[in-house]
Design goal:
Helix content is 37%, strand content 28%. The protein has helices at residues 2-20, 28-41, 92-100, 151-167, 174-181, and strands at residues 48-49, 54-61, 65-75, 83-87, 113-121, 124-132, 139-145. Strands 1, 2, 3, 4, 5, 6 and 7 form a seven-stranded antiparallel beta sheet that branches. The radius of gyration is 17 Å and the shape is globular. The relative contact order is 0.15.
Length: 183
């Protein structure tokens, strides 16, 4: 058991090192992957939504990563009939304003979220999905070469991870849940 845990730790450290070897700019493959994920999730931060909407949103950060997290509707202004998707926290309307002004919006500690980014391993371009929870370090939950076209695996993993985040079972970690579901 200890050996297995140490191997997981080493794999996570190696992935973190690879993702730190960031790209100067996103390649067309990376941009295409982000577009694919955004189309799957459908709603972006600050998008117009119905008054009572709650669900999942995504947005791109300036450091070339994409985040997926819970959102809810917030009134655009005091007397406005327009509602926009913000973070599912009491001050979630601030996330909309900051995003619309072009600030690099950090995910709130109160919300579990997924972070998707890219890194280089030798001559291979890799995609990583990380799970963020409170102030704990990100946990790697998926890594793949972009050459392997992992879009469907990523879609399935995001659905499964978001399902776990929404239910948040006390008896099982996200990693255990994903292994049991073989995603």
């Amino acid at each position: 058991m200890l050996h297995h845990k140490l191997q997981e730790l080493e794999a996570e450290l190696a992935a973190a090192e690879q993702s730190r070897r960031n790209l100067d700019s996103l390649t067309p493959e990376c941009t295409g992957m982000f577009d694919y994920i955004e189309a799957d999730i459908e709603l972006k931060l600050a998008a117009k939504v119905p008054k009572d909407w709650k669900g999942w949103i995504c947005y791109r950060r300036q450091n070339k990563s994409l985040l997926v997290l819970r959102g809810k509707a917030f009134r655009e202004g005091t007397f406005s009939a327009t509602y926009r998707a913000g973070f599912d926290i009491p001050q979630g309307a601030d996330s909309i304003t900051e995003y619309q002004r072009g600030f690099d919006v950090s995910p709130p500690q109160e919300l579990d979220h997924l972070l998707i980014n890219f890194g280089i391993d030798g001559d291979k371009l890799r995609v990583f999905i990380w799970y963020g929870e409170n102030i704990a370090a990100y946990k790697l939950i998926f890594a793949a070469d972009l050459d392997d076209e992992p879009q469907h695996q990523i879609s399935d993993l995001i659905v499964e991870a978001c399902t776990w985040i929404a239910k948040r079972p006390k008896h099982q970690t996200l990693e255990e849940f994903l292994k049991a579901r073989e995603v």
